[in-house]
């Protein structure tokens, strides 16, 4: 007789968290602390640096769009693990890339994989947590992004402190992501316990809503400019590498409890109002990174950015599930695609304006304004 192992809700949430550590916190966001090293060694312009970030987000957007279709057939767990391994491999290969075009190709592929990890990890883990009556553990899942940001900061600093280059930092990060993929495989099983089928709902359109999608896209645009260039802002102000590290660590530390915090706010205000409130707070933090021209402004920006962006991400996905009752993967994927579109536009836009104007002031203020518009749009329920 074959017995299947069903993990506890907490261990399942931890498995999902480690997936996001690997593919999001490391696979996507490790570029931010490594970027100043690459700019210094390779002489990348702000436009080039922004384009490398943008193609990663383009891959993310397209990956989410594909996940919204029926193209990815078969076991969601197999797709999750394959995407985790591919994300780790593309991160490792950045250590040997020899040209700008290779950077673009690898980061595009990494973005594609990170979207699949987010969509499949969310679909696998959140659904099971809700079925077990422990939906609040979704905060553990999304805390993986903040934990991954901290891990990326530590790995990058370790590489620099031991005499390594930006290539060493990519290598260490990719190896860590590969190890984490193995841990996810043991914590997120393929089979689920059989549960009583819920009463069928009448067919409902799974479209999460035009205004919600627009708000989510503007949020993606608004947060990503600061998320991409905040460490570069620290370096351009001639602070030490220790300050660079701690600014990005602050983002990660603030992100870890943010989903729990904003879920608690949503219980009082509702998802839409909590989303809007978080966008306003993030807009203030984003603007502070260029309006308060000292270390205090950067610290303030890091805390407000980290303390909101994953909370808003989770609130948006939760609201999309609430507004559409069909296939949750499809709704999650459409939201992720809208989010990805904003992220594609943001870094390239910011890098181009930086090269034209000589500073990140103007693109950052535009990003702050986009977050304020998102706060208004999300409250339109159509």
Short characterization:
With 382 residues, the chain is mostly helical. The protein contains 14 helices and no strands.
Topology:
Elements: H1 9-26, H2 31-42, H3 46-67, H4 76-93, H5 100-131, H6 138-161, H7 166-187, H8 210-236, H9 241-255, H10 258-269, H11 271-291, H12 295-323, H13 328-357, H14 361-377
Attribute tags:
382 residues; mainly alpha; Growth Hormone, Chain: A; 14 helices; 78% helix
Describe this structure in words.
This protein is mainly alpha-helical and 382 residues long. It has a single domain, classed as Growth Hormone, Chain: A. It has helices at 9-26, 31-42, 46-67, 76-93, 100-131, 138-161, 166-187, 210-236, 241-255, 258-269, 271-291, 295-323, 328-357, 361-377. It is globular and about 50 Å long.
What coarse outline follows from CA principal-axis ratios?
A: globular
Distance between the termini: 52 Å
- Round the Cα radius of gyration to an integer and report it: 20 Å
Mean pLDDT rating: 86
Number of helices: 14
**Total domain modules:** 1
Q: Which percent range fits the helix content?
A: over 70%
Q: Report the strand count.
A: 0
Please give the CATH class: Mainly Alpha
Oligomer: single chain
